[in-house]
Amino acid sequence: MDFISNLFRKDKNQNLFEASKLGQVKNVEKLLKSDKVDINLQDAYGKTALNYAVNKGYRDVVEVLIKGGADLNIHDGNGDTALTSAAKIERGDIVDLLIKSGANLNIRDGNCETALKFAVKVGYRNIVELLLEGGADPDIQDRNSETALISAADRGQKDIVELLIKAGADVNLQDKNLNTALIAATKIGHKIIVELLVNAGADLDVQDKNGNTALIYAADRGYRDIVDLFLESGANLNIQEENGLTALMLSAQAGRTDIVDLLIKNGADLNIQDENCNTALDIAEEVGFNEIVDLLIKNGLSPRS
């Protein structure tokens, strides 16, 4: 008798999976009322009826399962919960329903990403906004220690950066390469995001794993407007990266006369030497940028005899 009963229950559970996959809301309701199903049973793929309903986008089935007592935070075989799955298919209505039903917003998936981090990465602004309004932690780091803010800055997502800053994201957290959001935004030359981060209190002088600051990157890559912004905001001009090079040296090496001139006018130290005992003048002479050589000499440096 127990064997027959268990077999019957197993069939009912399978029926619940199928009804949830197919969006058969009436059948799901009947099965739940029969009291012959385990609503949180996981199949061979680790999925529950709720996982299937969310993955297929059946909001009405999701709602019935939630009312029936479905566990919102079970991970499937890929490490996804109902919330992370809803975020991944950009279903704001289901995300909103899960948030209001008490889903844990900060659980990480198989890639150690939260629903928020994934939504940021793919640029789903509406999902990001829902999650932040629901109380998602913006500072959780993934397996590379990247935060949602660093990810948004790196991808030039101005609107999402604004949302994250408004939600209180820590602007100075660093990833495994010691990049901050400011360094990430500077690398791609996104002045508006850089300005947002500076105004939010980003530390201008943080160094990444190679010793580079945001100013060093801006000077090296020729982003004059960003260099100007950093100078106005009080960035340290004379920090040296791992090879002893400063922003002045790197801009001289790259032939960026306008930035060299700007750095000089703002008080850059012309006499700093790199690990090979070369000054900015030595570097400019070596690569043959005569205009920069003349500019440095004019401002007090003397060429070596």
Question: Could you please describe the fold and organization of this structure?
Answer:
This protein has about 300 residues and is mainly α. Among the domains are: about 1-105, Serine Threonine Protein Phosphatase 5, Tetratricopeptide repeat, CATH 1.25.40; about 205-305, Ankyrin repeat-containing domain (Serine Threonine Protein Phosphatase 5, Tetratricopeptide repeat, Alpha Horseshoe), CATH 1.25.40.20. Helices cover about 55% and strands about 0% of the residues. It starts with a helix and ends in a 7-residue tail after the last helix.
Summed up:
By secondary structure, the protein is mainly alpha-helical. The chain is built from 18 helices and no strands. The chain has helices at 2-22, 25-33, 49-56, 59-67, 82-88, 92-100, 115-122, 125-133, 148-154, 158-166, 181-187, 191-199, 214-221, 224-232, 247-253, 257-265, 280-287, 290-298.
CATH class of the domain at 1-107: Mainly Alpha
The major pleated sheet works out as: none
The residue ranges in which pLDDT falls below 50 over 5 or more consecutive positions are 1-8
Q: Please tell me how large the radius of gyration is.
A: 28 Å
The coarse silhouette is rod-shaped
Instruction: Bin the helical content.
Output: 40-55%
CATH topology description of the domain at 1-107 = Serine Threonine Protein Phosphatase 5, Tetratricopeptide repeat
| Gross CATH architecture of the domain at 1-107 | Alpha Horseshoe
Number of helices: 18
- Relative strand content: under 5%
Gap from first CA to last CA: 102 Å
Give the SSE string.
Answer: HHHHHHHHHHHHHHHHHH
| Total number of beta strands | 0
CATH homolog superfamily of the domain at 1-107: Ankyrin repeat-containing domain
Average of per-residue pLDDT values: 94
> Pairing-aware structural class of the strands and helices?
mainly alpha
